Amino acid sequence: MGREARRLFEGEAAALAATTISDEELEEMEAIITEMVDENARKQKGEIADRRFHVAIARATRNTAITAVIENLWDMRHKSPLCIYMLERARRVGVQPRIGEHRRILAALRKHDPKGARKAMRDHLERVIEGLLAATETDAIEGARSKAVKKRHEYTRRLAV
User: Fold this and answer.
1) Helices (H), ranges, the chain
2) What is the Cα–Cα distance from 125 to 8, expressed in whole angstroms?
């Protein structure tokens, strides 16, 4: 549910930010993307730079209520057992913040293109949801396969007696 809310609110925040964002804020976001690249390279958990990027967009709207909602949605990730489970599973199979998608959002913001920023953000969050679901599914399939192999070996040992 949080991901659906993020897609809705963050898409609109990106559209609004495109109309108000300053050159300084754009440069800050570029620096945050560089931090994201570094975090990915170190396989750092927690998506610290990713959160900072999304909150920076919210702040660029100049609307404290929008910023508070988006910060709260990000914080909810760490309180939801299902979300924590999915993020851990996704990390285990190598899912990381998507740099190219963040660059597309930033490009639309640089053009001061509300429709483009909204679409880039919604597309990004849709891919995040799909990636988490796929990673969780892959991990579950591997777990089931591992259990089946163990049972097969156990059965084979018993037949050899």
Assistant:
1) 2-20, 23-41, 48-60, 64-76, 81-92, 99-110, 114-159
2) 9
Average pLDDT over residues 59-70: 97
**Cα-flanking dihedrals φ and ψ of residue 56, to 5°?**
-60, -40
Q: At what angle do helices 64-76 and 2-20 cross, to 10 degrees?
A: 150
Name the band, by pLDDT with cuts 50, 70 and 90, for residue 94.
low
Contact yes or no for 126/7 (Cβ under 8 A): yes
The reported pTM is: 0.78
Residue 19 has pLDDT above 70, yes or no: yes
Alpha-carbon span 90 to 138, nearest angstrom: 9
* Measured distance between the N- and C-terminal CA atoms of the chain, rounded to whole angstroms: 52
d(CA 12, CA 91): 28
- Residue 143's alpha-carbon distances to 8, 120, 131, 147, 149, in angstroms, are 33, 34, 18, 6, 10
